[in-house]
Every structure is written in C-alpha cells, then in structure tokens.
Amino acid sequence: MFKVWIDAGHGGKDPGAVANGIQEKDIVLKVSIGIKNRLEADYENVQVLLSRSTDVFLELKERTTKSNAAGADLLVSIHCNAGGGKGGFESFRYTSASENSIKLQDKLHKAIMGKLGGIDRGQKAQNLHMVRESKMPAVLTENLFIDVVSDADRLKQTTVINAIIDGHVQGIAAYLGLVEKTKDDKPVSQRDINVPSKWAEATWAELTQKGYFDGKRPGATVTREELAVIVSRIVKSNFSNN
Ligand SMILES: [Zn+2]
Predict the structure, then answer these.
(1) In this structure, are 145 and 217 located in the same domain?
(2) What is the CA(123)–ligand 1 centre distance, in A?
C-alpha cells in the first residue's frame, strides 16, 4: 500500500494569502481533500494522509515530523501564490533535491499544467521547509495567484478546482505507477448509472423481469418513495403467489 502525504498549507489563525474575496487556506484545504477522495476512489493500493482535514493551524515542523514518522512515499504541499504579476502555476522542489523529487515534480507539474492551462511559471527549486525537511520525495505546488484578479476568478470556479485536483491525482498516479480501479469498483458518482455492475447484472435482469424495477438507471440511488413502491410490488406479488 503506497502512502501519499498531502499537506494543505496554512490554516486556522494563518489564512495564507487573502485577496479578491478568497483565502488561500480554504482553497488548499478543498484541493487536498479532493485529492484524497479521488486518488483513493480511482486507484488501487494507495492511502492518502493529510496534514490537516479541517481549518486548524499547524507549524511547518509539525507537518514534516508527522509525514516523516508515517513513512509516506511522497509528499505534496498545496499552496496558492501571491505577489502580483500575471498569475499562473509553478512548482518547487528543494535546491538539492533527490532524483525522485525531480521526477515527482516533473510528473506533477506536467499533469497539472495539462489540466489547468494558462501561464506556466516553471519547475523551480527553492530552500523551503516543506521540501527540505521531508525525507521522502517532496514537491510544493503554487496553484494560481490569490491576488491576481483573473486567477482569483478562476479559483472561484468548481471546474478549475477540479482541474487542480485532477492534475495532482494524475501526476501522483503517474509517479507511483498506480493502477486504476475497474469501473465496477468506482463510486456511484463516477460510473455510468445506465449500465448495471457486472456482479449485479443477473439479479437486476431477474427482478426487472419480475416487475419489481422498471429496468431503468440501475446505478442510480433510490429514494424512500421509490423504495416504498418497490416494497409494495414485492408484498403484492408475494400475496398473489400464496
Ligand atoms: Zn502558501
């Protein structure tokens, strides 16, 4: 089981960059939780651990102490940028990064840019705590600028947040060589609800044929009123069979 450590920057009393009606700490938390959910839902053999899953403050040292103790296989620290300019995406490794950190940065950077588009500020190296003190391959991503109006407008869109999440998921999966789960193992939100799962195919056909279900949308969730109708059909058919 691969262990992926996702570090949402800032939190609690430290909001990170604040401008244009958004706060860095909120965006990076949303992205981090999204990465965990999607990576664990879509890929085999991977567990995602988070520095924080709520709006709490953590010192930088606490973050790396925990991820090192957990023996994570890689760490990605999620941030949004500030400082003006034209905006865009950039990523950081340590100034004397390992081969694997360089490889992780390259996979992540290309996957995120591929999903996000826009200005590519490049794959950079800097002496930052999170990438220096992590014992495992580590990269810090700066996902658009909070204080650049056009970037902030993008960060307010769900599709853009999803692109950032997808890019991270794809990059991590490529680096670790993760295997995608088969369609039937995926959660309801990511399957074709009009096609029955392999394991349920025969039962679905049988109960549809008996008239308990209408044969439509086998993968959809059922409401209480729909269930009441189904129960009523079962009760009535049992009664008539007696
Ligand atoms: Zn930050």
Answers:
(1) no
(2) 17
φ and ψ of 53, to 5 deg: -120, 5
d(CA 224, CA 230): 10
Q: Are residues 126 and 220 in the same domain?
A: no
Do 101 and 193 belong to one domain?
A: no
Percentage above 70 pLDDT, the chain: 95
Which range has the worst mean pLDDT, 2-11, 25-34, 86-95, 220-229? 220-229
CA of 127 to the centre of ligand 1 (A): 14
Predicted local confidence at residue 187, as pLDDT: 66
Average pLDDT rounded to a whole number, residues 101-128: 97
For residue 184, report the distance from its CA to the centre of ligand 1, in Å: 38
Task: Give the pLDDT of residue 21.
Answer: 96
Tell me the DSSP string of 32-100: HHHHHHHHHHHBSSEEEEES-SSS----HHHHHHHHHHHT-SEEEEEEEE-S-TT--EEEEE-TT--HH
Residues 165 and 190 in one domain: no
Q: Are residues 168 and 189 in the same domain?
A: no
pLDDT for 191: 77
From ligand 1's centre to the CA of 25, what distance in Å? 8
Supply the pLDDT for residue 216: 86
201 is catalytic: no
At 235, list the tokens: 């009760």
Q: Do 159 and 225 fall within a single domain?
A: no
Distance 143 CA to ligand 1 centre (A): 9
Question: 133, 142, 206, 226: which is the annotated catalytic residue?
Answer: 142
Range of the domain at 123: 2-176
| Same domain membership, residue 85 and residue 188 | no
- Residues, CB within 5 angstroms of ligand 1 (ion): 9, 16, 79
The count of domains in the chain is 2
